[in-house]
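User: Design a sequence. Structure:
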């Protein structure tokens, strides 16, 4: 997808299709009697655009409802061949999150009609238009992805070019930078989605590690890959307990990003971010095997790890001034004669003894050693992402992912990141009382905590391995997979967390 920026009025743009957002500005539609009446208005407000769509507004064919689309040919008074009007919802609740979706809707609408070049009139949103440019480009990138990798008659519908139309007099350089950065982030999110989409026979832990290495080397990141011997040598008993049941070898993937000009030893006080991902390339449940129904979806149990790899790709290209290390524990979770069994006791790298109650609670085991290892590598701030619990999906559905934090300052950084990424996360608690639910009779802790509060007891388990290091845990079990096609995104892997992780890293730039 090529991006080009021009500054002019929408009417002057010559393109295959001009895309314009229309908002329901009920305030402007207020009648004398003060009754609120809907008033679809284009954003940006522009007399030529209003004129071109006037009849459609009068006839009620445009209402500005979110994701509504109306295509006009030969729009009067405009130089573009077509005009696509996309509803953005209510004007007073229109944010970059709505714009991202509207842009995605426009892009998928046009692509499916083989229109693969368009111009996008940047709507009014915040100062300077950078937020709008970012949202349009991110939304377009996400929409431009399809999961039909292995369909033999795969059609290439991808958008070839988007011309971003900014108001005359806009600051071109800063808009261009915003658009270029958004493209990096959006493409990195799609890189993650490609990994998550791969079936487990094609993306084994070994292949995941190779893909991470290839990406890293092409972008100047250091990537270290460790196999079974090294995992055992590091005494990663929790990670190994999951890996031991599979014929596929596990991989511990470590990717390092160092900002340019950093001395060998980081100055004390500078943050080192640790991004720890769950990389279960297939989760059968192990001996506590899952039911057959829907098990095919468990190829996406490496979505947290893939999010870390995608985020590192973006970080390598955006070059924030902060040190970041990604650690991905990649393995299958299989039943076999070598597999661990309920009741087994495993000693994690940290020395903690874990009683295995359910071999299907494997994500927390591989993360336990990943998190502890991150600390031994000198990470001062930790963030993990994992498709960790079905309980989180029960609690929050597919709309919000779960977020947990053991420290208010790191949580503040994460909320700043969310403001920019537009991703939806909802905070869940970590009261010490929940810890009692995972106390074991025979060992330090159990790997499950009973029927209730399953997302929280899983987080409490992880908390045992971060000690007092500031830490964020993201449970993305629901949000990592879209169950149906939406007008702005295809069914399948979503790439959730990539954008927030990149923004999160940026909030630590130059901090000490
Ligand atoms: N990978 C699953 C969690 C999951 C479930 C992700 C559904 C996406 C959709 C995880 O490894 C798991 O099996 N968790 C168990 C934990 C239980 C045994 C305590 C679960 O959530 O049922
Ligand atoms: Mn499981
Ligand atoms: Zn799992």
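Assistant: Done.
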């Amino acid at each position: 997808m090529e991006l080009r920026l021009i500054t002019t009025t929408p009417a002057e743009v010559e393109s295959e299709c001009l895309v314009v957002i229309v908002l329901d500005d009920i305030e402007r539609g207020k009648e004398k009697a003060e009754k609120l009446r809907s008033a679809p208005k284009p954003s940006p407000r522009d007399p030529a655009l209003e004129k071109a769509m006037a009849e459609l507004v009068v006839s009620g064919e445009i209402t500005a409802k979110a994701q509504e689309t109306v295509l006009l040919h030969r729009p009067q008074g405009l130089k573009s061949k077509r005009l696509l009007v996309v509803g953005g919802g209510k004007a007073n609740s229109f944010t970059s999150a709505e714009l991202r979706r509207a842009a995605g809707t426009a892009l998928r609408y046009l692509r499916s009609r083989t229109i693969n070049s368009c111009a996008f009139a940047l709507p009014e949103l915040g100062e300077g238009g950078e937020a709008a440019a970012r949202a349009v480009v991110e939304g377009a990138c996400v929409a431009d992805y399809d999961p039909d990798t292995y369909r033999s008659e795969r059609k290439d519908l991808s958008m070839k070019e988007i011309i971003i139309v900014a108001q005359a007099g806009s600051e071109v350089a800063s808009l261009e930078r915003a658009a270029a950065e958004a493209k990096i982030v959006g493409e990195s999110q799609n890189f993650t989605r490609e990994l998550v989409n791969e079936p487990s026979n094609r993306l084994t832990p070994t292949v995941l590690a190779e893909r991470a290495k290839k990406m890293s080397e092409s972008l100047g990141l250091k990537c270290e890959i460790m196999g079974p011997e090294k995992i055992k040598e590091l005494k990663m008993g929790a990670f190994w307990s999951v890996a031991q049941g599979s014929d596929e070898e596990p991989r511990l993937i470590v990717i390092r990003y160092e900002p340019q000009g950093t001395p060998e030893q980081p100055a004390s006080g500078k943050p080192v971010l640790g991004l720890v991902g769950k990389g279960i390339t297939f989760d059968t449940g192990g001996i506590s095997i899952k039911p057959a129904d829907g098990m095919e979806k468990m190829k996406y149990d490496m979505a947290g790890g893939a999010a870390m790899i995608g985020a590192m790709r973006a970080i390598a290209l955006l070059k924030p001034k902060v040190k970041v290390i990604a650690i991905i524990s990649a393995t299958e979770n299989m039943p076999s004669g070598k597999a661990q069994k309920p009741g087994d006791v495993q000693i994690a790298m940290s020395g903690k003894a874990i009683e295995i109650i359910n071999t299907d609670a494997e994500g927390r085991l591989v993360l336990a050693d990943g998190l502890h290892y991150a600390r031994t590598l000198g990470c001062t701030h930790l963030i993990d992402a994992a498709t960790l619990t079905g309980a989180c999906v029960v609690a929050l559905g597919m709309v919000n992912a779960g977020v947990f934090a053991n420290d208010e300052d790191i949580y503040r950084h994460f909320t700043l990141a969310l403001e920019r990424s537009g991703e939806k996360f909802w905070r869940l608690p970590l009261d010490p009382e929940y810890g009692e639910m995972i106390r074991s009779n025979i060992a330090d802790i159990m790997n499950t905590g009973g029927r209730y509060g399953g997302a929280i007891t899983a987080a409490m388990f992880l908390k045992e391995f971060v000690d007092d290091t500031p830490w964020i845990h993201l449970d993305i079990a629901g949000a990592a997979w879209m169950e149906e096609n939406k007008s702005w995104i295809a069914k399948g892997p979503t790439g959730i967390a990539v954008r927030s992780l990149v923004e999160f890293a940026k909030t630590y730039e130059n901090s000490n």
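The mean pLDDT is 96. The chain is about 30% helix and 20% strand.
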